[in-house]
């Protein structure tokens, strides 16, 4: 019962931490460290929630969740595909076992399905780009689409592509275009699509849960801010800010499924951050945050094997 109680408390703490983090503004001062914290909260919540139910259900076997699952499988086979040491009349434990295994299967399947749908959407879009996009000597390494509306996005993958429209080329000044392209290259190099995938999958699974929706929006904004910070190394922050404003006023085309665009939600928050950047979080605080995130991520797996 101790392991189940600790895992339950850990799952609740992750939900409370996520709820508090959605309204915090300090993550804007260190988006990469904050993204790592969000990832650790998500992973820990999933493993702690499933682990709490399994730890309670498999308590008669002792020796933790992992050994309990192994012992349950062996005893279930020995007892003729029954519940092993779990008696049918022990309804709370049987229900916890079924619920835990079901939730684990759902979380894995939703993540795999979201990944498969994203890969299929990207594959289709790459085929479309091979038909309608072209190279332009003025913007080497970038695919140009002959479309009058404003669009700029990155199609991530093993062979990532940055795509802009003719409308974007005519709208932006050269230094603004450099800022936008640097932003999209940052998305591709740092694989922000993989960062967003679990939160997108969870949001599709629990769209009615406000904390899940807010978490997805918060991580999406942090991903854009992290790309903005990378772009600032190659261009003026004000130029990127003016490019974002031009995109907003011109009615930019949303990025296609599976892609990451330069626009997105809360553009004005990003613009204000670029024009009037706040003080960066102290290095000691950022290192402490990374250390805490790593320790949090390993806490649930360790509790799964704890022989309590």
What does this structure look like?
The chain has a five-stranded mixed sheet. It contains eleven helices and five strands; from the N terminus they run ααααββββαααααβαα. The mean pLDDT is 86. With 308 residues, it is mainly alpha-helical. A hairpin with a 5-residue loop joins strand 3 and strand 4 (161-165). The longest helix is centred in the middle third of the chain and has 42 residues, at 91-132. Helix 4 (91-132) packs across helix 7 (192-205) and helix 9 (237-250) runs antiparallel to helix 10 (267-275). It starts with a helix and ends with a helix. Helix content is 68%, strand content 6%.
Which terms summarize this structure?
elongated; 68% helix; 5-stranded mixed beta sheet; mainly alpha; single chain; 11 helices; 308 residues
Layout of helices and strands:
Elements: H1 2-22, H2 31-57, H3 64-78, H4 91-132, E1 133-135, E2 143-145, E3 152-155, E4 161-165, H5 166-171, H6 174-189, H7 192-205, H8 210-231, H9 237-250, E5 260-261, H10 267-275, H11 283-305
Parallel strand pairs: 2-4
Antiparallel strand pairs: 1-2, 3-4, 3-5
Q: Order the strands across the largest sheet as they lie in space.
A: 1-2-4-3-5
Cα-to-Cα separation, first versus last residue: 8 Å
What about the largest sheet?
A: 5 strands, mixed
Separate helix tally: 11
Shape: elongated
- The class by helix and strand makeup works out as mainly alpha
């Amino acid at each position: 019962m101790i392991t189940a109680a600790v895992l339950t408390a850990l799952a609740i703490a992750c939900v409370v931490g996520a709820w508090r983090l959605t309204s915090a503004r300090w993550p804007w001062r260190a988006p990469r460290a904050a993204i790592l914290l969000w990832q650790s909260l998500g992973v820990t919540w999933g493993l702690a929630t499933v682990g709490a139910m399994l730890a309670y259900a498999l308590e008669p076997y002792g020796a933790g969740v992992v050994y309990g699952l192994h012992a349950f499988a062996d005893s279930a086979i020995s007892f003729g595909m029954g519940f092993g040491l779990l008696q049918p009349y022990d309804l709370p434990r049987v229900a916890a076992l079924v619920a835990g295994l079901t939730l684990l299967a759902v979380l894995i399947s939703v993540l795999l399905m979201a990944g498969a749908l994203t890969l299929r959407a990207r594959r289709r879009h790459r085929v479309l780009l091979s038909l309608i996009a072209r190279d332009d000597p003025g913007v080497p390494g970038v695919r140009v689409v002959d479309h009058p509306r404003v669009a700029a996005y990155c199609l991530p993958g093993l062979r990532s592509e940055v795509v802009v429209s003719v409308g974007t080329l005519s709208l932006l000044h050269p230094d603004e275009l450099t800022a936008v392209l640097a932003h999209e290259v940052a998305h591709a190099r740092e694989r922000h699509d993989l960062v967003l995938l679990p939160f997108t999958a969870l949001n599709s699974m629990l769209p009615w849960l406000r904390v899940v929706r807010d978490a997805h929006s918060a991580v999406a904004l942090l991903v854009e801010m992290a790309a903005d910070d990378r772009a600032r190394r190659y261009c003026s922050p004000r130029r990127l800010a003016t490019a974002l404003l031009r995109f907003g006023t011109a009615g930019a085309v949303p990025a296609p499924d599976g892609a990451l665009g330069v626009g997105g939600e809360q553009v004005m928050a990003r613009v204000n951050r670029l024009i009037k950047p706040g003080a960066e979080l102290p290095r000691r605080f950022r290192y402490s945050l990374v250390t805490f995130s790593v320790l949090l991520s390993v806490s649930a797996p360790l509790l799964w094997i704890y022989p309590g």
